[in-house]
Amino acid sequence: MPAAQALGIGSAGDIDPNTGCVVFATDSIPAWAGTPLRTHFETALDLPVAVDNDGNAMALGEARFGAARGGRHVIGLTVGTGIGGGLILDGRVFHGRMGVAGAAGHIVIQAAHGLPCVCGGRGCLEMYASGPAIETAYQRLRGTSVTGGVKALQRLAEAGDDAARLAIAGGASALGVGIASLLNLLNPDCVVIAGGVAQLGEPYLEQVRAAVHLHAKAPMRDTPILPSALGVQANLIGAAALAWDRLDATSAA
Ligand SMILES: [Zn+2]
């Protein structure tokens, strides 16, 4: 096997793509914020290193090699414990001014009386469409909690549990509302959905598409909403693509 020529990292937290440093992370990884990932690994390996947020890396992986292959403008969403995302515009990750663009989980879908969010805001998409949000909705409807996450809820729904069916439908509808705004704003080639909730499969995605169709403008309402083709590999493959890009930039300089 040839020796590695560069390293790509898709990391949790907000990453400054210029310095490769973690600028913000929640307490789920204590003391992660402030970690100079790029400097650490460049020093240790003596290789060019590219670091980006894992949502951005996932979106880039799917845009270059996965479900959105060939797309120039791609929105990638990871719907799981939280909702992460990445924007690929003109074939590249769109970072915004401070490097933290693409926080799709925190677009506001419910301004008045919105549920409080971990980000400090209210009514964020994540509070309605993530896995825990769907489980909480079920608990509210049924009066009991469920173990086994959204997959267990899907089995209950299939067995005739209306609360489970409504909880999943509510999550799908909320996601569709959020995606509709993103489509209206960005007019991408497609949206790729990954993560644990997306593993509910086509019945779930059909409900997401129905909500998109209801809320997005024509002709954006018919934008393909696709399941991830690369699954958990998307982040790794996208990080490798970032490494190639960095290598190209380094050799061109
Ligand atoms: Zn939020």
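^ zinc ion complex. The pocket of zinc ion is lined by residues 106, 117, 119, 121, 124, 126 (CB under 6 Å). The radius of gyration is 19 Å.
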